[in-house]
Amino acid sequence: MEKITALLCPVCGSGLAAESGSPLAQCRSCQASVALGSQMGFHRYYVEPGIRRNAAISLAGQATELSFETIAARLMFIPVWHVEAEAFGFIGGQRPIVERVLKIPVSDAEGNTVYEKEIKQKIGGEVVKKSLWVKKDYRMLGIKWNELGGSDIRDGASRMDLIPEDDAELSKLGLVLEPDAVAEPEMIGESTKSFKGQLLYPYGNYQGLTSRISLLKQNRRLIYYPVWRVLGFTKKGRFKCLLDGVNGTQVYIKQYSRIRIVPPTKYLVAAMAAGLALGMILAPGNVIPQGWLSFVAPFFLLGFLAGGALLNRLILDRLAEKAVRLIWKV
Amino acid sequence: MKLTPLKCPHCGAKLKITGNTVLVACQYCGNAAEFTGESAVKLEQAIIKTEVQPDILLPLWLISYDAKISRLSSHPPRSLFQQEGTEVLYRRKDARPEDPDIPRRMLVAAFKVNNFINYTADLSYELSLKQDERLTEEQVKRPMEYSLCYYGHLDAQGMVEVLLRMLANKKSHNILDMDFDIGWRERKILWWPFKKDGDCWRDMIYEQRLLQSALEK
Lengths: 330, 217
What we know:
The complex is a heterodimer.
Chain A lengths: L15 E3 L5 E4 L5 E3 L6 E6 L5 H12 L4 E23 L6 E10 L5 E11 L3 E9 L14 H7 L5 E3 L5 H4 L1 E2 L6 H18 L10 E24 L2 E8 L5 E6 L9 H18 L1 H4 L5 H36 L2
Parallel strand pairs in A: 4-11, 5-10
Antiparallel strand pairs in A: 1-2, 2-3, 4-9, 5-8, 5-11, 6-7, 11-12, 12-13
Helix pairs in contact in A: 5-7
Chain B lengths: L3 E2 L17 E3 L6 E4 L4 E3 L1 E5 L7 E20 L4 H4 L21 E5 L6 H19 L2 E3 L13 H19 L3 E23 L2 E4 L5 E3 L6
Parallel strand pairs in B: 5-9
Antiparallel strand pairs in B: 2-3, 3-4, 5-8, 6-7, 6-9, 9-10, 10-11
């Protein structure tokens, strides 16, 4: 967690009042305006989890559709960038607004066409401006933001309660994952890319188009979003489940199969048999002195293979699995 | 964290800035300053002079720069424009990609308007051709309506980069993909005269229309 510091006025030393998202603060006593610098370019918020521990475990149990034994259930807060900005740019490579004339028949009361109304519609490359959300997927957990109900957040963002992070003791609630140091420039790059994608999307196959956008009036927020991580054990093996901490939807489920180590007996026996066969072909006299044995040798080989497989299945597999269970404690 | 008290760059008095303001007038000396996010800097302003009194003056950034093309590639249009047989009207067929005309200064809107971009592009283009002969500027002496300024100069510089590429493409037959190396020079706010024309605002210099409903304060 970042250390929380009080903002004191550099002119008179009394407390400053800062609005969220604003790069400015006002002194309460001397009325001076203070610039907060670029480090305060974003604010931190968190979303309160709506799912409690027991509910998370039961939801995870429903997800398995098997009898389920919990090993651990932990609440985590995942940092997600939220960028609100205006994009300014153009698409198409040309300025060119091409006009298409649409003819709409206008009919009278009896249904006969009286005249055709012409509407000029502009198509083609154009300059666009949009204001929208961008989010960063969180790769550390192998999940993407979209899987985390990202689209829901995008739609319901205005209704969601974002609690300023300074007032909360998030670490008491759960594990807080801090964004890495490169996350901010990366986020800006990603948000630009995302804007571009959304601007180009209506044009379908945009291979031949060029576009250039710049982000204006950016408002960045870092939101800690709650996620329940439930680990358990079913008869199929270990089980991992990530649940959206707000509405409990499954984000990510992984059912691990039982760990098996297959001993290479089969291949060992096959290699021995192949060596024997090669020897018989190259120098039959040395390997099998008696002539009648060369008739029996193929059956020996088959016997080797069958015996190896049996050995593998009955003894070595079981031993290997026992060893794995002992070591990994599953 | 670096905390900087904001002072008027003209008289040194304490500045009182509230909300999302870009331009602010000093409450003691009355001069305007631009808040850049970290400090308040001096700002030059001018009004475009007209014979008839305008109904409203809207702020535009006039930005000067030296731009060089740092990367350029081009390809013939192979998009939906060509597929539909709608040859782009504005493209000059003899224009070469290595010959884009780069204006040395540009005018972009500092006010917020829903459809301002096409308008701004036209105005920038017109300005780069005509400004010297047709426009007369006058130094600002009275306080203006600074709340109309929505975009700061950093936003305006971002717009310039986009518009440069757009203007180059406007003249080229091929689609140009280019990057610019831009050295920024002086900038100032031009207060542009507008006249009311029915439901719209009409620009008094180039007769461009601006939807009144699009103007957001």
